[in-house]
Amino acid sequence: MNKILAVLLLALTTLTASYAQYYDKEPIGTVYEYEMSNKLMGTSTITQTLKKVEGNVITYEVVTKVPGMKQPMTMENALTFADGKMQYSVERLLALSKNSMQQAGMGSNIDMSFDGEAGFTPLQGKVGDKLPLTKATITAKVQGMELNIITEMTRNEITAVDEEVTTPAGTFKTIKVEQDVKTTTQAMGMNQSQVTKQITWVVPNKGVVKTETTTMGQVMTTQLVKITRP
Known about the structure:
Blueprint lengths: L1 H17 L12 E8 L3 E13 L2 E9 L7 E10 L2 E3 L2 H14 L6 E7 L4 E2 L12 E8 L2 E23 L2 E18 L2 E14 L3 E9 L2 E11 L2
């Protein structure tokens, strides 16, 4: 069971990173490279290639290389950039979660469902803006076992604007968003909760260039390291 939990949480962590996306009206074929790292997991690379732009919907091919995994995880991801927000669909989240778990070796007989509210990343705003506090449950049935991961956001607000952030890709003026999220994992009578604190730096109307996620004293940093245009 511990292996299944670890793989599911890894898949969800990878998906979280895959929504750290940036778009500055570059041409099709532009590659955005992120690195996701902490002391326990090492450094993963997330390569996002711009595949298609249809109105406000931006589609990427995402390839994630995780230390210790034989094969990289490949998926297609699409987000909507509109009304000062970056949003994803619940249906796509479930499809990507299932695909990630299958590629991580959990088999093909996986069923997943979502109940609750999907959040969004703000692309504009001012200091003090309070953003929606969402709650959702992802249920996964895999290898005859049912697991529930419940996420409840208890804080979600813009705490700074025009904050300069430097990554290997350059220096950006950003909106700083701070969130507190309680995550409860339920499986085989186990009920385990933890609180995650996340800081996201967003370039207005373009997307995410850096996040820092702290859980149980461990810091996971995801940052944009390179943009390659065709």
